[in-house]
Amino acid sequence: MPYCEVVKEHVDAETTLNNAGVKIFYRTYGHGPSRALLIIGLAGTHESWGPQIKGLTGTDQPNDDDGIVSDDDSGSGQGMEVCAFDNRGMGRSSVPTHKSDYTTTIMAKDSISLLDHLGWEKAHVIGHSMGAMVACKLAAMLDRLTLSIAIRFWMAKTPQQRAKVDLDTHYSQVERSSFDDYLKERIGTNTRKDVLYEQYVKGISETGMQSKDGLDGQLNACWLHKITTPETERIRSAGFLVSVIHGRHDVIAQICHARRLAQRLYPVARMVDLHGGHLVSHERTEEVNKSLLELIKASGVKKTATDWTNLAMEDPGYFQRRISLIRSSSEGKSAASPSHFIVEKFHRCLLFLFGLLVLVYEYARRALRVVKPIKVGPSLT
């Protein structure tokens, strides 16, 4: 079985952090000049990428299977090789026992080790849920192409419980005016929900439930995840395009968060919102795969960010513009004229006074609410 041993991080001669003995299980599919790394979400395995692996490569047979020829002669896979893997803490990969061994930054470094192990100097990076968080961290570290989708989590003790929670949270549960309810569609004598439930229970039983250490660690990684402003700037200036794909009916990660991420990455990002839930990659497979192929094609022809994005630049507002101007002038104040310096000091005072007035008003409003007499109606007795 193919494994990648994660590169160890040395702090000093006596200390080794995070990665001692960690092995990542992976599989590759298809062949071609383009490469894509697929990073799955919390408690998921590489097998969760099945619809995208088939759509991108034209095959669902791993390259390490004996006697399998994975070259895509049909043209549907666009001549691509993809790698899907189990994150640390899940599937056949190692399960560190300490929460500190799980952060999205550490897991991004796992991905880098895997890319180095494969000998891939460049790759499209596609992440789902927690995998999208990892992909953002990876994009801030390296010149890679990134896709972001969502966030998901669950707490279940048996395959049956886990399957039920997955179905309740991964797919859209609302009626759609122009779309049939995905889970209520009939497949023979059963509904799609019944069929998926049996498939989920079988798949989870075969791979095994996630261990407590793995689940706690991955949840810890999600909880601590944050993309800083410098990281956002590095992604925007790295020279690659981004697609943020999200289901409109996602009950775990609302679509407003995806739109906010896309806007932060303007102008290199495109927002793709689809009629689906959290697992939109399965619910709207054709549309997601089409969006992925469009992203890969646009990257190949080196399309400019302004031609790629479907977002508009947001007006930061007066106060944000003033703060930005003050910061920029402060950085270069040695070259500023005395009059300009005085004006900027004056604006700082105004901003401070405005903030102070807002604070006083808020405290006064709360105080009045406490001491305000309460009207009592006539007694009923």
Automatic annotation (TrEMBL):
Residues in AB hydrolase-1 domain copies: 40-283
Biased composition regions of type Acidic residues, renumbered to the chain: 62-74
Domain of life of the native organism: Eukaryota
Region entry Disordered, spans: 51-77
Protein name per UniProt: AB hydrolase-1 domain-containing protein
Organism: Brassica napus
